[in-house]
Amino acid sequence: MKNIFLLFVLINTWGIAQTNRFFYEYKFIPDSTNKAEVKKEIMLLDIDKNGSNYYSYDKFVADSTAKADIERQLKSGSGNININKREKPGAVTFRVTKNYPDFTTYLFRNIGTDRYKIKEDVKPEWKIEPEKAKIGEYNTQKAITSFGGRQWIAWFTTDVPFQDGPYKFYGLPGLIIKIEDKTGSHSMTLIGNKKIQTPIESELNLPGNLNAFAMGGKEVEITKDQFKKAWKAYANDPSKNMREMMMRNGGDGNMKTVVKLKTSDGKELSDPNQIYREIEKKTKENLKKDNNQIEPDLFR
After folding, report:
1. pTM for this one?
2. Distance between CA 103 and CA 142 in Å, rounded?
3. Computed over its alpha carbons, how large is the radius of gyration of the chain?
């Protein structure tokens, strides 16, 4: 009887899908004219038998909280949906997935209220150097590559049986422990890891007008060239998509979307035209300061 019970426990344990979660500290300089300002974000690299997923921890928590809040409002049946600014929304909004075994790589990125899925068509080509170093608890070896408009220096370990790494980087004979571009503008360093049950992401069934706020729906798959074109259009007219969306749907049926915006001085705006002007002003200001992208080739 004890043997049967033990076998049952083992079968159930093996049946639980496991994910290897690696925590990276991502340091980056958004503004190339202000190198003293260095931002930090904790990024997660989740690896399972099907592939990997690289994304911001803060953004994941903020999005999960926002989804739960909207679901609560939908269930209440009040007829109104309020979208409030999220606390600690995360400075890094992009996400990267890789599908095994061929390492098909996708970048997920928003432009304004539009959500895009961009397939990577270039594989990192590495030159492995003889230099070795101890980083944390790992014995690592140096490798260099040119990718996305930057020169990168990576340190990988064969102690961990995954030929993967943060962002779009993979293809070395082990896990990338640290990678940094030669200008020192972007660096990602492994700071911890643990095993978790595979996270299951549930799709939130939202009215169409809420999908435009990047809170639901599927990403549109486009090429790199199409992304570049969309980015230039957004930089020239940041409020265009929201204007079109608000004119197209004031709501689905009895559902009304309430959009409010607070300015930097604490003033609350509810008039659409004022909101559009404020969005355009702030976006253009922010784009001037966000001129040092991790992959500059995508924004030229």
Report:
1. 0.78
2. 22
3. 22
